[in-house]
């Protein structure tokens, strides 16, 4: 399963629309700070909350892992990630994920990152993502409409279905691997307009 334009487009979209929080074309500790503030607001957490600290650490470890791979290849000492760095990183981990439904030990750190994403989407903290949770994370009317369409793809038009962590992990792996726009994992973040 070769990488195609669709795969590149969704990885580009994920970088620009989700990761690059401050829209400067790079992902760095500034973006982690933005995510941390958003997470604090969405989860109604206090500034010194252990959950907030854990979330921030997950993001920093994830960025650090991408930078380690990037700097090893280039011999550089970068402190932020470009779109190209991110695409190459995703291409590398994609190879380890083809045909899998769980994270291999070489990518065990990703399960912490995915847990953090799950917690963002699980707005009522019941350990499931419901349609209500999924839609409540929308940024505006256009995003809400996109999320409604995404939910129907993911859950086979079942408005009462809930996504548990195991299924969420499978969807995230499918997102990183899939080159087919019809695969459900491509819609898990709800904001894509492919």
Would you write up a description of this structure?
The protein is mainly alpha-helical and 194 residues long. It is 60% helix and 2% strand. The chain is built from eight helices and two strands, in the order H-E-H-H-E-H-H-H-H-H. The chain has a two-stranded antiparallel ribbon. The longest helix is centred in the first third of the chain and has 25 residues, at 50-74. The radius of gyration is 16 Å and the shape is globular. This is Calcium sensor EFh. Keywords: Calcium. InterPro entries: EF-hand-dom_pair, EF_Hand_1_Ca_BS.
Named CATH topology of the domain at 5-107: Recoverin, domain 1
Computed CA radius of gyration, to the nearest angstrom:
16 Å
Strand order of the largest sheet: 1-2
Report the strand count: 2
- The tally of helices reads 8
H/E series, N to C? HEHHEHHHHH
- CATH top-level class of the domain at 5-107: Mainly Alpha
Mean pLDDT: 85
Keywords: Calcium
Organism: Brachionus plicatilis (Marine rotifer)
Protein name: Calcium sensor EFh
